[in-house]
Amino acid sequence: MEWRRKDSREAQLYSRCVIALTTVATMLLAAMAIYSLLSPRVSVSQSVPSNCRLLQKDMSCLDPCKIVLVESIPEGLQFNSSTTHPSIFQAWLNLMGEARSSLDIASFYWTLTNEDTGTHDPTAYQGETVLKKLAELSGKLSVRIAVNTPEESQPKYNLRLLNDSGADIRTVNMQKLTSGVLHTKFWVVDKKHIYIGSANMDWRSLTQVKELGAVVYNCSCLAADLGKIFEAYWFLGVSQSIPSPWPSNFSTLFNKDTPLQLPLNNTPSDVYLSSSPPSFCAAGRTSDLQSILSVMDDAQSFIYIAVMNYLPTMEFLHPKRYWADIDTQLRRVAYEKQVKVRLLISCWANTPPLMFPFLKSLASVKNNNPANTSPLQRLFVVPASHQQKEIPFARVNHNKYMVTDKIAYIGTSNWSGDYFVNTAGSALVINQTASQTLEPTVQSQLKAVFERDWNSEYSTPLTQHSHTRDFC
Ligand SMILES: *[C@@H]1O[C@H](CO)[C@@H](O)[C@H](O)[C@H]1NC(C)=O
Ligand SMILES: *[C@@H]1O[C@H](CO)[C@@H](O)[C@H](O)[C@H]1NC(C)=O
Ligand SMILES: *[C@@H]1O[C@H](CO)[C@@H](O)[C@H](O)[C@H]1NC(C)=O
Ligand SMILES: *[C@@H]1O[C@H](CO)[C@@H](O)[C@H](O)[C@H]1NC(C)=O
Ligand SMILES: *[C@@H]1O[C@H](CO)[C@@H](O)[C@H](O)[C@H]1NC(C)=O
């Protein structure tokens, strides 16, 4: 990991020049340079004393980070578009191929084989391959898995196999800790590469469910920060309660106000990781909700959102509770700033019918802009053959991202209150607005994904008169 303050970098250069003179004095200088290189280095595991804010301004990450958007496109879906990205399956194979010392996985549940789902579908082979390779790696290097405590009825074969192969597994009892679930899905490899996105450790997430994520290679600064979120889950796997406050080594310097500055695909970028629920956020960490609200607030011309579920309620809480933080922000920016709002929502057999009246209500927000900038919505339906219909909980758009004229936000949460109040999730927020670059930005790539899906034959406008029973 390369943490340098500008002055220490200069000191290092300076010392290199002087060393060429090879005198006793230069050796002294070199010693001083090394000292100055070491002393101002701010370890990421340090807490955030208030005087660090200024220091942090001079700090940037020198890793040659490479980011790749990755997708699972369900079997049979075809787009008339040149917008394509490597598969999540391929990304996971690459990451396992790169792994030399450690692999940490935060996960909701594990069903990577046909056996787990009581199916005989040939497209399970990708998930089965991933499980096999993970089991091989578990014998060779440190593989740690944090998983939501499985219910009695959930299959345990994957975890048992990995445990027997040498992986370290901790179950996080979210039900007891927050009455939620651990819904996060990310990987940290060799404390250097990361994956984050919507795909579960489920064979269907590779071939039968539409998913989106990002892999960042060679990026230890970012991996160290995601590693802290992993360590929190790891800690909660053995702790009976949530620390408050969290020990200072869990805190971060990087958040919506002081993002991490690093090159992504040679483009200077501001990046941070947000996390939910708020009780899991150590000092310095922006909560998922705050990151979403601030990204919306920062938008000037458009906000495109692709999520499976969108509900201004607590979906799983009884008695019922209204929860409109995100909905209110969207209405506000659509009304006050005339920002163009588009929502691409998923429609499948398990869609809560309650979602549609709320969406129609959001769509009725009008503003003074003569160009119709009312929030528009479309429903994305993944069609299924007879055989595909037999696969339980598949054939759905499970993406969870947002793209504005400035920001790419890639998350792991459904958009209803529960996911921001008591469920564990996380998101990668990328800001490349300030940069001039020839390479396509993540924001422009994510926008292209949204437009491809929005304009595809799989999406249907939701109007005030739509009867959703007709097409879900
Ligand atoms: C692709 O374009 C063809 C011809 O315009 C059209 O018939 C078809 O429905 C399109 N397919 C998709 C998936 O959009
Ligand atoms: C993993 O295996 C050990 C024995 O090697 C056992 O004690 C432990 O309960 C297992 N853990 C899980 C999560 O299956
Ligand atoms: C990561 O860095 C290594 C060493 O510099 C390089 O060989 C490799 O190609 C890089 N990986 C990616 C995906 O850019
Ligand atoms: C902080 O320190 C504790 C105790 O040594 C350790 O269990 C935990 O994993 C550390 N947290 C991080 C983020 O490294
Ligand atoms: C993105 O970066 C620009 C330029 O540095 C800044 O003005 C803006 O506030 C940032 N947006 C967010 C949501 O962080």
From TrEMBL:
Keyword Transferase found: no
Gene Ontology terms for molecular function: exonuclease activity
Intracellular or extracellular location(s): Early endosome membrane; Late endosome membrane; Lysosome lumen
Pfam families: PLDc_3 (PF13918)
Domain PLD phosphodiesterase intervals: 178-205, 393-419
UniProt enzyme class: hydrolase
Catalytic activity line of the entry: Exonucleolytic cleavage in the 5'- to 3'-direction to yield nucleoside 3'-phosphates
GO cellular component: early endosome membrane; late endosome membrane; lysosomal lumen
PROSITE patterns for this protein: PLD (PS50035)
Name used for this protein in its record: 5'-3' exonuclease PLD3
Organism: Mastacembelus armatus
